[in-house]
Amino acid sequence: MKMSMVRMLASSPMLMFLLSLLMASFFHTTAGQIGVCFGQSGNNLPKPSEVVAMYKQYNIQRMRMYGPNTEALEALRGSNIEFILDVPNGDLKRLADSQTEANTWVRDNVQKYNDVKFKYISVGNEVKPGEEGAVLFQAMQNIDRALSEAGLSIAVSTTTYMGAFTETYPPSNGRFNATYLNFLQPVIDFLVSKRSPLLVNIYTYFAYKNRDVSLEFALFKQSKDEFNDPNNQFHYQNLFDANLDSVYAALEKSGGGSLEVVVSESGWPTQEGDGASVENARTYVNNLIQHVRNGSPKRQGKAVVTYIFAMFDEDKK
Is the pTM of this model over 0.90? Predict the structure, then answer.
């Protein structure tokens, strides 16, 4: 979930703040599965070409961007940075209504950049029930068809968030909220048929802010909130694992048990919220990077590809 009410892990105002929170060796030695989100909702940001140079400099091997940006795409040419490109929510209806529009979008934003390492096209971010939800699946199909007709083998998915799930405690009880499953069921079936992952934004901060869990449990620290899931005896030492495994449980109940989950955003606020601080952000991100190498109780030993939100403080958020 985007942090519109609090400032998420970022830089202030221009310099990259993320790296000041991390041990310098992380990206070079232990973080092959870690990416960083590059949002562009700000007037205070470096040029996209400078941002790409930062990713290269610090060996950040994965980037997510929330919509096409010509300068950034040009800078990514030949970079070998694994790239998730979003189709913005505002484009979903237009692309769902017209295969021609979808073909044009792929031509201009993907096919044109044949030396960019596209990993996924995420059609929509945290799409809600209603008009956007109603057109999501058709937009995904049209983008997938456009990629195929262009001869491009790039997986198509969408990004959802924990608000789409319910009964997430214990994790084995997790399932999709019915209003979300109404439009996500064909999406799940599509992902299964294509063997593509589901992208999910996970923020443990919100549960702490709502006093559902302790700060320690949200930050991967030892806490009194540790528990065993009574349905399978998996032991949960942190909320991130519990959230992630509740997503897997929901997918299993919806015919998507074979799917991988990519954590497409995770982070912690540095200010303007209860528990928001640079120290807590540092703790969360460092622990997150170390933790996801080992998987979750339900998928032990399988590293969780995870994207940190975000590279910069965006002053328009």
Answer: yes
Q: Which of 126, 132, 216, 314 is catalytic?
A: 126
* 307: helix, strand or coil: strand
Tell me whether residue 149 is one of the annotated catalytic residues: no
Short-list 307, 311, 316, 295, CA closest to 125: 307
74 is catalytic: no
- The DSSP-derived string for 81-132 is -EEEEEE-GGGHHHHHH-HHHHHHHHIIIIIT-TTS-EEEEEEEESPPTTHH
Active-site residue, from 132, 216, 265, 314 = 265
DSSP state of 187: H
Look at 18 and 129; give whichever has higher pLDDT: 129
Q: Give the number of other Cβ atoms within 10 Å of residue 77's Cβ.
A: 12
Residues 86-108 have pLDDT tens digits of 999 999 999 999 999 999 999 99
At 200-247, the pLDDT tens digits run: 999 999 999 999 999 999 999 999 999 999 999 999 999 999 999 999
